[in-house]
Amino acid sequence: MKNISLLAALVLFAACQENTKKREPITVNYPTTKKVDTVDNYFGTEVPDPYRWLEDDRSEETEAWVKEQNAVTFGYLDKIPFREDLKNRLEKLWNYEKVGSPFKEGDYTYYYKNNGLQNQYVVYREKEGGEEEVFLDPNTFSEDGTTSLMGLSFTKDGSKAAYLISEGGSDWRKGIVIDAASKEIVEDTLVDIKFSGISWKGNDGFFYSSYDKPEGSELSAKTDQHKLYYHKLGTPQAEDKIIFGGTPEEKHRYVGGSVSEDQKYLFISASVSTSGNKLFMMDLSQDNPELVTILDDTDSDTYVIDNEGSTLYLVTNREAPNKKVVVVDAANPTPDNWKDLIPETENVLTAGTGGGYFFTEYMVDAISKVLQYNYEGNLVREVELPGVGSAGGFGGKKEDKEFYFSFTNYNTPGSLYKYNVETGEYEQYWKPQIDFNPDDYESEQVFYNSKDGTKVPMIITYKKGTELNGKNPTILYGYGGFNISLTPSFSIVNAVWMEQGGIYAVPNLRGGGEYGKKWHLAGTKLQKQNVFDDFIAAAEYLIDNNYTSKEYLAIRGGSNGGLLVGATMTQRPDLMQVALPAVGVMDMLRYHTFTAGAGWAYDYGTSEDSEEMFEYIKGYSPVHNVTEGTAYPATLVTTGDHDDRVVPAHSFKFAAELQEKQAGEQPTLIRIETNAGHGAGTPVSKTIEQYADIFGFTFYNMGYDELPNQAVIKEFKD
């Protein structure tokens, strides 16, 4: 369908909108997307791939298509009457000072800070009793703010630092080494670092990980052999020694190395997917340390959290789906010698260390509970948190007597608290001065039944006094994968949505980690449909209980959450008015052929595994389930042209399918951010523009000609 008008669909419910006038239609003329005869054969089934050519991110043809699509999309967005009001409101609310938790390195205390609308956070430092000074300002790395700081690591004595930068949002990093006191660069820039931190060995050098540069496009070509390197200062990167991952026997997709705080051990994690890892160690006090195996299978997620001499403390979900802390001697570190220190509970554990104590954060229905233990495994105290929500940052160095933690929820902007490890007392260290009153809003947690009867929690946040009349604009946000948990946190963009009378609802879908490994596995591979069913049931709950209705419901998610939106809108296009899939995994038959995508097979399986798996994946793959003659919701697909995590071809193909087959009057557009990646490090200016467009598109396609709460707009204009 090449020419559509919004008028027909909107008129149907415009009458029930107060203060809504009839409007002129916005006509959309989609670019013609050519089709090719590419066909793949899976277990005897032929599957056409007519938009395969869009996978070539280096071709002039793809570049021209991107420009044409953006011209159409921005032409549409430009006609939304309140788009500029949303952008201005976002800017005003965003414009407050933000501060990260301080940390001590050498003679200085460092912290991240943003004065309000800076594109990137700046790293500051100060000596005790001294003045604040800028240490690193990523806003100077590029003119447009698209080069970001993506990692900063100091030597144990704080005299040297190495930091990683990303250009245009790419996962490929460059590493720069500086003298901390003078801030001067001390050697050549390292290149082609990927999926890696930096871990120093004394002052002589550091460990990092990367892949060989792939043949073809570095933004989309497959990378599947990760290697751990050691870089000795003062030597060329070409001479860096491969520590692990260089042989066929050591081939893994993800390899990482970290040096213990006392500098005695190097711990190496090796994985073939995003779940499960092998674990090795080296004794760095020896001249030629041997590789010692701690764990030689990938049946668990296990890592070393600390050591005292040769005593190792590990966090694992091996035979403990909700995780536990175990202790073992480095002389015999294999699982048969592990002893429980902090046993598994019914709630999922995340553990940190600081000041000579363990801090265990538990998720109780996605809400934080924090306990403090000593190194004998005895409970010291429960930390009474400032409220109901998410706490983070409990941890520091062994010698720290105090550190800082953060607290937030959906209607409370994040604040910092200074915690005394011995007394358990804390005080508020920093509170944001933001033009938003949390007391005007409320969150409630509900539990609803999914299709198979499974109880799923959901937190719904909105302005106090909201009438549940089925007419509230609502965003249903989800993820549901990779053992990732969605816990309550404040967002400026969601605050703008809610002050316009919007409802923001977040269900904790299966596939996530909110209830441990079993909850995760219940949303993987041949159980992936459970995730979509959970999301659909959440939408039905909101509608059945009059929070909203189909005409005022938008669904949103990014990355794996983009897949969630794509699958939900193709399975139940009747359920929502607006769909907002961001940087989504949309071609499930080919996702594993791009960059590090094969590592996601633990969650998804692949189309090559078996005929059963192929048929199952094909049954929900968004690109393959757009059906001719179906009326789909108004859709704004978003992606970045430098996304090398989930390559933009996923979104390109999905948008092309929607534009060809949409039978309804709703627009199906794609917004492609240039010089941007998967999301991390995106400049504030670009983020504000993106959300002005996303919310503008959403409100407009819910029938609004002006923002629901025009008084807020008028107030800040005045």
TrEMBL record:
SUPFAM superfamilies, sorted: alpha/beta-Hydrolases, Peptidase/esterase 'gauge' domain
Peptidase S9A N-terminal domain location: 31-429
Gene3D superfamilies attached to this UniProt entry: alpha/beta hydrolase (3.40.50.1820), Prolyl oligopeptidase, N-terminal domain (2.130.10.120)
Catalytic activity from the UniProt record: Hydrolysis of Pro-|-Xaa >> Ala-|-Xaa in oligopeptides
Coiled-coil stretches noted in the UniProt entry, renumbered to this chain: none
Domain Peptidase S9 prolyl oligopeptidase catalytic as annotated: residue spans: 488-701
Any single Pfam family the record assigns to this protein: Peptidase_S9_N
InterPro entries assigned to the protein according to its UniProt record, in alphabetical order: AB_hydrolase_fold, Pept_S9_AS, Pept_S9A_N, Peptidase_S9_cat, Peptidase_S9A, Prolyl_oligopep/macrocyclase
Annotated keywords: Hydrolase, Protease, Serine protease
EC number of the protein: 3.4.21.26
Family: Belongs to the peptidase S9A family.
Name of the protein described by the UniProt record: prolyl oligopeptidase
The species this protein was found in: Flagellimonas profundi
